[in-house]
Prior knowledge:
Order of helices and strands: HHHHHHHHHHEHHEEEHEEHHH
Helix content: 40-55%
Oligomer: single chain
Number of helices: 16
Structural class: alpha/beta
Strand order of the largest sheet: 2-3-4-6-5
Amino acid sequence: MRIPSQFDDDSLYRKKIPRGESVKTFRKLIRLALGLALVAVVMLQAAKPNIYRPFFGHLPAKAGGAAANLPSAVAQRTQFSATENAKAKQTPYSTEDRQTAEQLILQLSRQEQVSWTVTLSRSLRGLKNEQVPIGIATTAQKLKFAPDLGHAKRAEWEYAIQDLAGSVPSRMANPRYGRAQQHALLAALDEAAINRVIDGSVWRSDDFDSFYRALDTASQLPASGTASVGALPLLQQPDVFLNQIVTIHGNVALVEKMKAPENPYGIEDYWQLWVKPAEGADRPIVALVPEIPRSVAEQAETQMPVQEGTQVSVVGKFLKRLAYKSGAGADLAPVVIGRITYAPFAQGEQASTPTAKETAVSASKFWLIASISCIGGVGLAMLLMRRTSVLAKQSRKLRAAYRQDPEEFLIGLGEQSPTEPSAEGQGNS
């Protein structure tokens, strides 16, 4: 029996679904389930920083890192104010100043170059030189300038050298005059020290001028904005990255505390980290840093190489390729001198301890959001139930309006059903 509907021409009874259609529906459900599982897998993988780190760089220190969690003695040595950092930024100098600086340092011995580098670097960073070496003033009087150097430019250079030697009276001091020449002189001294570095060898005495210079200025390196590289680019293109600031990411395989010999920068010790890069070839990188956070220091207590050590990010200057003895024989490892910009917190260590007031505010926010969600859910459910009830009543009214009275229907059947044969039928018989 077919019961018509006022909404469409189909029967109110559920139609029988062909076997082919049911199979198609089942396949659609399987595809949707597989798509949902794929989304869940992608969401889980997106939480791993190693996947997107080659594209977006290292993680910021705020994301559960302890980059600034260093001992107080190091904090006093490496912490600078905004004014001092602004002074430390390199002042632009002209090509003529750079050429003059290169001509001047050729007149200095290697020991004099190191002494001038130490004094210049501290002076330009806003640090006070406790005692200016006497040799600087003596050497400054013997320097000869090029004959074609202009009078005004020569006056600036003479003032810059006298200021470095500490022979400028305080009443005549001008913090800006001669500053560009001092920066040009320091850049030329750094380049001369870099040229003495012997690449692809073990540590040599010629390496330590640039070595301790980079270690002394490690605290000034920027925490972001540098290129992230692996071991292979540093090994295959050393000339491109030489003395450039780079960022490396990986896991610390071995931590060693090294005792520094006597040096003009006053550095007593430093840390040598053998880092397994997070991406690229499985080749170690040697990172030399002045201090390490607590999570890395705990690994140093083992004094043994580990397969999966503490995850760190180090920003520093690429110095050379260091020759070392590995299991396969003689090998090379890139050397980066800088500071740790990211490291996870150690067990029981927190970035900040929440106060009782912050905890109360967080709890109140949670209960407020939970209450609003419950009220909204109950209200939405009541609205849907009311809407369903109204539609059901309207549907019943429509069916009742077109339904005939049962008694009239039965009476009509009785009139249309004769109990005796008609006269026409008898005549025919």
